[in-house]
Amino acid sequence: MFFISALRADTLFAADALFYAIREADHEAFVDTGSLRGGEPFPEVISTAVSKAHGLLALIGPSFNVARLQEAPNVVAYE
Question: Alpha helix locations (H) across the chain?
Answer without folding.
Answer: 8-24, 42-52, 75-78
